[in-house]
Design a protein that fits this description.
mainly alpha, two-stranded antiparallel ribbon, 4% strand
Length: 391
């Protein structure tokens, strides 16, 4: 911020014939910002949390806005997460520097959501060639009520109707409204959204396994090599299968899934943070009128650990070759999973090909602390087996 923005602006301000600069910088969704993790596996520094990244962004913007040479207003839009509440709390700041506008209290989103739904249903009606009477009278009003001011609910409904799905849009819309009717007894604005998420997830052939994938993707995405193709190769039980498409094919309204040609260089992404909030909320995700989709964090780590071991077994197969990109990603995975090496079942590695593979892996990625620990553990086990055979 100082080098690229503030310093050049001060130079401009010092000019006698300086141009008149004014305007606003609008930054939306700051609560979903997080920096890419570029440190190598040799780094001993802990992975930064997104809250730390967000605080750094806020501090940089505050410093810029307090500079007399900075000519712009800054508008920050965010959910009221703790880091934002604390940063802008007047009690924590001797000199107030920002004004707060709470949209929940001072803005009624129903009119905008209605306008959005009307436009989108007109588009869908033309696209599918539906009769002018679709959707049925009162549908948009019910969806607006279900949204409870949450624009993400309306956007998710439209994405679901707009993506390829085994069910036709008319049937999907009826199912959404029926799910909403079940949840309408509560006053929580998130209940309808969570019910919609549950309905979409249950359209997967294996909802619980799909949730394991989604939560694993979210954890692995902190690495810059966590491209969709690498994650697929790690999590699939069979590298030749199409498990990713099988599990996630109906979930395009929740997840940005790169097209096949881009998966080697593009990550999976999520449309909205509230999906992950739902999957970590036992009260909503683990009960109610849908399947139990809740998993403890340790269960997700164990799932990733098991899939990591399966990938290592495939690497030990002399007839199977990993790409350099996947091998590098595989060397970083244990750091993310963070499970003790001693919990690794050693018998899966005790083959001559396995020993050679582990030597190559450890040498190529010797800067990786976790891979070295794994190699040392596996090496001891291989030596024990060889000694037993020789005797």
């Amino acid at each position: 911020m100082e080098v690229l923005v503030s310093a050049p602006l001060r130079e401009v301000a010092a000019q006698a014939d300086r141009p008149r600069l004014e305007g606003a910088i609008i930054i939306d969704g700051v609560d979903e910002c997080e920096a890419e993790q570029y440190q190598s596996s040799a780094s001993h520094f802990p992975i930064r949390t997104k809250e730390q990244d967000q605080l750094e962004i806020l501090q940089a913007l505050q410093v810029a806005s307090s500079d007399p040479s900075f000519p712009f207003r800054i508008l920050i839009a965010s959910r009221p997460e703790r880091v934002f509440r604390n940063f802008f709390d007047p009690e924590n700041t001797p000199t107030p520097f920002a004004h707060k506008l709470d949209l929940h209290e001072q803005y009624n989103a129903d009119a905008d959501i209605t306008l959005f739904l009307e436009a989108q249903f007109n588009r869908l009606r033309r696209h599918y060639g539906f009769a002018p009477s679709w959707p049925p009278t009162g549908t948009i009003q019910k969806l607006v009520e279900n949204a409870s001011g949450q624009f993400v609910y309306a956007a998710t409904v439209i994405r679901l109707l707009d993506t390829t799905h085994r069910e036709p849009p008319e049937a999907l819309l009826r199912a959404i409204l029926e799910a909403g009717a079940i949840q309408r007894k509560t006053s929580s604005p998130l209940e309808q959204l969570y019910a919609l998420y549950a309905h979409i997830l249950e359209s997967s052939p294996n909802p619980r396994l799909s949730v394991r994938w989604i939560r694993s993707i979210n954890q692995l995405n902190v690495y810059d090599g966590a491209f969709a193709s690498n994650i697929n190769l790690l999590l699939q039980t069979d590298p030749e299968s199409h498990e990713a498409e099988h599990l996630l094919g109906n979930l395009h309204s929740l997840i940005r899934i790169p097209p096949p040609g881009d998966q080697a260089t593009t990550k999976y992404d999520f449309y909205h943070k509230s999906l992950l909030d739902f999957l970590r909320d036992h009260d909503h995700c683990g009960s109610g009128n849908h399947q139990n989709l809740y998993f403890e964090d340790d269960e997700i780590k164990m799932f990733m650990w098991e899939r990591f071991l399966q990938a290592c077994m495939r690497g030990c197969n002399a007839q199977f070759t990993f790409s350099a990109s996947f091998t590098r990603f595989l060397s970083e995975a244990p750091r993310c999973i963070a499970i003790y090496v001693a919990s690794s079942p050693t018998e899966v590695h005790l083959t001559p090909a396995g020993a050679a593979w582990w030597v190559s892996m450890a040498i190529t990625h010797r800067e990786g602390e976790y891979i070295w620990k794994l190699f040392q553990y596996i090496h001891v086990s291989v030596r024990a087996v060889l000694s037993f055979i020789q005797t």
